[in-house]
Amino acid sequence: MSAMLDPDQLRTFVAIAETGSFTRAAEVVHKTQSAVSMQMKRLEERVGRPLFARDGRTSRLTSEGDQLLDFARRIVKLNVEAVASFSDAALSGRVCLGVPDDYADRYLPDIMARFARTHPSVELSVICEPSADLVHRIAAGSIDLAIITAADIAVRNVQVIRRERLLWVSSARHVIHSQTPVPLALGRPTCQWRELAVHRLTSAGRQNRVLYASPNSGAVAAAVLAGLAVSVFPESGLRPGMRVLGAADGFPPLPACDIGLLRNPHEPSDLADALAQHIINGLDNLTEGEAAQ
Known about the structure:
The chain is 43% helix and 22% strand. The chain contains ten helices and twelve strands. The protein has helices at 7-19, 22-29, 33-47, 63-85, 101-118, 131-140, 192-203, 217-225, 270-283, 288-292; strands at 52-55, 58-61, 93-99, 122-128, 145-149, 159-164, 166-171, 182-186, 208-213, 231-234, 242-245, 257-263. A five-stranded mixed beta sheet has the order 4-3-5-12-6, with helices on both faces. Strand 8, helix 7 and strand 9 (208-213) form a beta-alpha-beta unit. Helix 5 crosses helix 9. The termini are far apart.
C-alpha cells in the first residue's frame, strides 16, 4: 500500500501556496522556518516530485505543486470538518469583525480562511473602516470585534497583539521624496499617522504639505505608486513598487505601530471569542514581556 500523505505537511504546503513565502507560512502554522522547510522536503520525497520553484524572494508552485494544491486543500478541509463534527462546542450564527483597510489585504484572507475551516456554520461579516470609526462601533455595540491601530491612549481595553515598523514610503520609480516642500498623501485630518508624519517632518526641518488625503489606504497607495507623494505605511501594508525611505533620504525615524484587538463589552459571545483566538494566533508576534509593556 502506498504511503499516506501527512495532513500537517499538507496544511503547511497550503499556507506556503497562499502566502507565497516559507517565512510567512511559518507564522501562519506556528512553526520555525527550518521546520517548514523540512516538512516540504519530506512532502516532496513522499510525492516524488518537486513542488516549489524559487521566483526571487517568493516561492512559486511547480506544475506538480499546482496539481497537489487542490487535493491538499480538500484533505485539510475534510480533516478539520471531521474533528469539528465530534465537538460538543460546534458553533453557528453570525459574528461581525471590523478592520482598517491598512491591514485588510495582508491579514483578512488568512483569518477568514482559517475561521471558515474550523467554523463552517458561522457567518462572518466584515466591515472595513478607519480605526477611530471602529472604536465608535465597538462602543455602540454594533460590531463584535475590531482590529485597530492601538496608538490612542484614550482607547481602553485594547489587547495589543502585534507590533510593526511604521515606514516612510515613496514610489520606487520616482524621486518625489526629494522635492521641497515634501508632498504627502495621508489620511484625513484626525488620522494619527497623518499627525505623526507632519510633526516628525516639521520637527526635522523639512517643509511639507498634504496634497492627497483619503481614509482609504488603497487611494493613498495609488498616489504614492503614481509618484505623486510620500506617505507612511505599516510594514504589513507595503505594496510592490514602493520604496522605503530612511535617514539617508532625509526622513526621520518613526515609532513602532501597535496593532490591537477590541472586543464588544456589551455582548460577549463564544463566537467572538473563537474569532478573537484565530486573530491572535494569526497576528501575534509579541513575547509576553512585550505585550505587557
